[in-house]
Amino acid sequence: EEILAVTFTDKAAEEMEERVDKLLPYGYVDLWISTFHSFCERVLREYALDIGLPADFKVLDNTAGWLLVYRNLDKFSLNYYKPLGNPTKFIQALISHFSHCKDQGIYPEDYLEYAEKLKTRDDMPEDNETERLKEVAGAYQVYQRLLLENSVLDFGDLINYCLKLFKERPPILKKYREKFKYILVDEFQDTNWAQYELIKILAEPKNNLTVTADDDQMIYLWRSASFNNIIQFSKDFPKAKKISLVKNYRSYQNILDLAYKFIKANDPNRLEYVNKINKKLIAEKKGQGLVEHIHAKTLDEEVRKTIKRILEILKKDKEANYNDFAILVRANDTANPFIRALERAGLPYQFLASKGLYSKPVVLDVISYFKLLDNYHESPAVYRILNMPFLEIPAQDIMKLTQYSYKRTKSLYEAMEELPLVPGISSPTQEKIVSLLGLIKNHTILAQKRSVSEILVAFLQESGYLKYLVNKDDKEQLDLLNQFYKRVKNFEGTTQEPTLNNFMREINLEIESGEQGKLEFDPEQGPDMLKVMTIHGAKGLEFKYVFLVNMVDKRFPTIERKELIELPEDLIKDIKPTGDVHLQEERRLCYVAITRAKKDIYFTSAEDYGGQRKKKLSRFLIEMGYKEKFQISNFKFQNGLLEEKPKILNLKSKISPSYLPEHFSYSQLAAFDKCPL
To answer: In this structure, which topology does domain 3-53+159-236 adopt according to CATH?
Structure first.
């Protein structure tokens, strides 16, 4: 109970707690192992009233923040940031900006004071930029007032109000200082300015503080992670003992050497360079891994070669299972071609994204059904419901219903009601549609008096959808439905009128805000499946075989995206790093990707991604030794050397049946029929 251990994710905190729990006597439960935010929430729950906060406050996530601003938009004095044609355009940018302010410990009153000083300065004419700054400062104040009026705090508030509590109430700070004689911070490189301030104030005066950090894995600069915190730590604690952890139990030495040589391009903005320490990793495993570059003419060919190599490895390595493979992408939207190819090849996979619940087919089915209960004439929703897999309605029957509704200018639902008049519908389909109509009418009545969660359960059970998934033992789809059920229950617990209509309105607003539905996943659990995920999502994980795809210019490294609303430099308390900050972070991200590999790492690229110009090879591959001038050939980069891979002409391989679509939609066939080519 005298140790405080903080880290950045709930999963990391849980793992740490489990390990400690095994080492301690049975029943020992008073552990303070948590995330920064959980620790601060726990403190504020007990002492909120001491700084004027409601004790029963709720914690607001980003989406709820967007909805709060949306519903109170008229209370904001916005001009520039509320364009007439799209008044909600800048809501997300404003919330993100306020979050960055809180990461820097900038309060609304600080922002307003700064804006007023700019206004009164003689050398600063009141131009559009000054007006925008005043507008943002005023919006920040209104936002903070709305949070308090609604008894909610966002994540930044948890840290800042905890800091405020400790600074304004010395007896409370004294209590926690005496309680925690030792403080441990994991992933210190991910801390922001406010979090470091919190750690420093708690650690005084004894300063029994241990932090672990790897600046080469600092990949959350966009989330206000501070490189300066690592540098400043040595200045704040000059007597601190420095220990370099260089033993590596994951990768082979040649992969570690490749990663080390590559990341040194970030010098002099690295801890190793600044503090003159050794960070060169030494592998405990003997042997060598494979480092290979696979180049293709087109994206399709790049995808095919990737899948082909996976199949070759599975055939060669008898001990390998699907969980040993990871396809790492820089951004979620670039994963789709690889996902489609995995489906066509019949390889089981999981696309591990932190967002996208509302775009999952099984969840889309439920949302479509809810839309239909709200509006029978929602033909796209009806079409999706008719195509639900458990119904097994033939495509030709759905086509006949669609044609009937189109010719008579009726909705698809009306066509279903006039089923006896639709020619050529098979008897099994007629029975299913009659049953479906009855279900819809019953649930429409149910929606008037029952909760959304009850309607959801009724639909899944009475339609046969749940039984269908259970019989298939489709754990992934069942898990997605469970996550959506939790989302429904969360809505019911936070809304005064939790009706189906209000739920659908909230979902639509979420989607309008850019939210796609939070996804919970544990890549180390679940079925034996190949993993497709972003590099950010892969941090902390390891795989026997890693494929880092789309290694071309502007895809990786990406083009820097500036914040729509940037923090005024005069307000920033952190010291900004020097050099090309974005490129350095992208390079660290690539370093993280390389060091996920236990055995082999494959880089893939192509020349043609659909644009007018050929893509240049990623500068990162060139930095590793791959030569741009050899791009048009098929070369293999292995153990630091370039060697040409012999080409074998195979006319039969030009069209591979395994990569042809398994089915075509009606619209695709119609387009083909009308195509003049």
So the answer is: Rossmann fold (3.40.50)
Residue 360 is given by DSSP the state S
Six token digits for residue 210: 């241990």
Distance, CA of 540 to CA of 538 (rounded, Å): 6
Please give the backbone phi and psi of residue 547, each rounded to the nearest 5 degrees, phi first: -115, 115
| 182-185 and 543-548 strand pairing | unpaired
Alpha-carbon Rg for the chain, nearest whole angstrom, is 28
- Do the domains 291-353+525-624 and 3-53+159-236 match in fold? yes
pLDDT of 130-140, one tens digit each?
Answer: 889 999 999 99
Residue identified by tokens 């082909």 is 308
551: CB partners within 8 A, 6+ apart: 293, 603, 604, 605, 617, 618, 620, 621
Distance, CA of 246 to CA of 540 (rounded, Å): 16
Which CATH number does 291-353+525-624 carry?
A: 3.40.50.300
Strand, helix or coil for residue 159: helix
Distance of CA 131 to CAs 32, 292, 567, 600, Å? 46, 54, 15, 55
The SS3 call for residue 464 is coil
Q: How far is CA 265 from the centre of its chain?
A: 28
**Contact of 244 with 279, CB cutoff 8 Å:** yes
Chain Cα centroid distance, residue 390: 30
Q: Where are the domains of the chain?
A: 3-53+159-236, 58-150, 291-353+525-624, 357-510
Helix pair angle (452-463, 361-374), 10° resolution: 110
- Convert the pLDDT of each residue in 431-488 to its tens digit: 999 999 999 999 999 999 899 999 999 999 999 999 999 998 888 899 999 999 999 9
Is cis: bond before 205, omega within 30 of 0? yes
Are 539 and 219 contacting, i.e. CB atoms less than 8 angstroms apart? Answer: yes
3 vs 451: CA distance, rounded Å: 44
CATH code 1.10.486.10 for 357-510:
yes
Predicted TM-score (pTM) above 0.70 = yes
Give the model's confidence band at 531: pLDDT under 50 very low, under 70 low, under 90 confident, else very high.
Answer: very high
Cα–Cα dist 584/562, whole Å: 15
- Do the beta carbons of residue 210 and residue 243 sit within 8 Å? no
Cis amide prior to 268 (ω within 30 degrees): yes
